Amino acid sequence: MSDHHTQADRLRAAAASLQDQPLSLQQLFRLHGRAGPGALLVVLAVPCLLPVPGAGMLLSMGMAMVAWMIWRYYPRLVMPRKVGRFQLSPPMARRALNTLAWLYEKASRVMRARLRWWVQPGHRVWLAPFVAAMALIIFLPIPFGNVVPAAALLLIGLGLVFEDGLAMLSGVVLGLALVAVLAGLAGGAAHWAPELWAAWPLRPQ
What we know:
Elements: H1 3-17, E1 23-24, H2 25-31, H3 36-48, H4 55-73, H5 81-84, E2 87-88, H6 90-107, H7 127-139, H8 147-162, H9 165-199
Antiparallel strand pairs: 1-2
Protein name: Exopolysaccharide biosynthesis protein
Transmembrane segments: 38-71, 125-142, 173-193
Pfam families: ExoD (PF06055)
């Protein structure tokens, strides 16, 4: 049995043992060892892929907090006490643990340890600003703007869990492509805005 199937079984066992007890983020973090930041990104990114109103704005704040945590304690893997005390209700915790277990089993079909240089804690200095940028895009009220940055963070989170540098690089490329597209659209809007305003028939004379 692979390590990640064992991890999935461990998460399901943790979900079954919760009963009526909540799960703190610190406990979730410890269940993953050094892959804790990756697990947090996966938990925060998955709901942003679903059409849940308001989820992006709320969860983007959690992503920004993860970015701060990575930046503040780099290169160590530490969760601040105040953040770690945040608790998931028993139903939410069971759902999160079982979803993570399912995702790990599915992802294990294509992900494996490779290009591990990228996933080492000492080489993640770029991760904090990237996560913060994706969180900002998710926070903005852009139609369907959650999907691409959330997918990028999901790839990075799974890459950390599986120590798969290729998955992490794929997430980075996806996120940077989105930033380039948004920058192009913003530049085009800034270029054409004066002409559109001059041609607008209802503008004040």
